[in-house]
Amino acid sequence: MGTYEEFNQYVERIENLNEVMGVLHWDQEVMMPEGGINARAMQFSVLSTMRHELIVDNKLSGLIEEMSKYGGEEERSIHREIKRMHERAMLIPTELIKELSQLTTRSFPMWVEAKRKSDFKHFEGMLQLLIEKKCEMANCIDSNADPYNVLVQDYEPYLSLSSIEEILVNLKESLVPLIKKIREEGEDIKETLEGNFDLQNQKFLSEDVLNLLGYDWSRGRLDMSPHPFSMGNVFDSRITTRFEGENFVDGLLSTIHEFGHALYTLSLPSEHYGTPLCGDMGMIIHESQSRFWENHIGKSLAFWEEILPTVRSRFPKMEFGSPERVYKMVNRVKLDNPIRVNADELTYHLHIIIRYEIESALIRGELQVSEIPAVWNEKMEKYLGITPENDSVGCLQDIHWSHGSFGYFPTYSVGSILAAQISHHIEQEVGDIGELIRSGDYQYLKNWLGENIHKHGGKYTTPELIKKAVGEDIKIDYFVGYINRKYAEIYEI
Questions:
Q1: What is the mean pLDDT of residues 408-412?
Q2: What is the dihedral of CA 62, 67, 68, 72, to 10 degrees?
Q3: What angle, rounded to 10 degrees, do the helices at 3-30 and 73-89 form?
Q4: Which CATH number fits domain 145-493: 3.60.140.10, 3.90.190.20, 3.40.50.150, 1.10.1370.30?
Q5: Considering Cα of 336, then 177, then 407, then 360, what sign does the dihedral take?
Q6: Share of the chain above pLDDT 90, in %
Q7: What does the domain layout of the chain look like in residue ranges?
Q8: CB–CB of 144/125 below 8 Å?
Q9: Rounded (10°) CA dihedral 100, 104, 106, 108
Q10: Prediction pTM value
Q11: Active site residue ranges
């Protein structure tokens, strides 16, 4: 057996352990009985330890050294990603990996219960432990670096934190005056799409839309979970969502968002399964895909012209009016909404900025865990003019911190910036995307994304992949132009 084949087999073992843990994670959030948590914590502990030991083994060190001699583009890409993973893991003690695995497994049900009770104190001690362990990990990796910067690299290893933070600053500067203008001068869109929407029919509607978009049910499924997510691989990529009885739009848009993630995963090059070439290139690229489908497709007038007859058939007792009326209500700027996942395209990013500011301060030691509820509410009032009525719709609404996912939130906003850039470049080639939607031609969009982004898997770094897809570096200009045009028309300002 040659070095390349041996290296690939070794990497496949690591990747398949990842996949096994992914299925267990899905099961825990979707199907596992509450009493299974102790066993699941031990299972994750064993598997994460096994994976870590494989990654830091001297045998992999030797194979990485040998692989550096290969000159092909694919070999170099695999070598780059495995070397990065190996060097980072070598700095983290196995015992710390084990402890973090157990903590994140046990923290999820504690977060669920705290959210149910709207009691931050119930989760506070666990969150404190998670932050301490994540800071310990960051210190092991680079004791001289900003610990938040170190953690962000788990989700985006190739775009610098300084460039991400610059985007967030520019976003805030662009959004605040636009939202203020809408609040003061915009048409008063008081109507909403709230009512009494049967949960089973909402699930049927999500299935209808997934069929319309071309979700591959032979390699996926739709389930309910406390917080929407998708997981899987090129052969099995599952979607979860959640529904609320008084509002069908938010659940449907969550489904479309997760479809974007799943489509990316299902479109990766299957011939490279088990290697980084069949993996995604970080969460900014991933979120660009989900936000493209959620916002540029799911919130478009053309989509609601297409889907409204199906909506009416699922909820025959409800009055919806014209597609134009529904489109305005779907895109209404929710100046009174405290929930991130239910937010509109504008205020959404202020929700993200609040989380970024809080979690970065926590990791940098500038904020105490006990201060989170008060600081959260202060920032909500400052940026959005809202004070959450309780912890459940305030600082406990997101699942991310229960997973130890500090540094994830900024990828949503940067992904949205890239989604607008992608949409612009598609329209440069094909004209109005709305015409594709009206003709039911979602395949063109899937082909474009597949050819320019999905098929490359982990071959290129994030900046390289962006430049290959749209011919330039990531820019905020397209997003700013898009939201100003769209909301000027909706609000007649």
A1: 97
A2: 180
A3: 60
A4: 1.10.1370.30
A5: negative
A6: 90
A7: 3-144, 145-493
A8: no
A9: 170
A10: 0.94
A11: 258
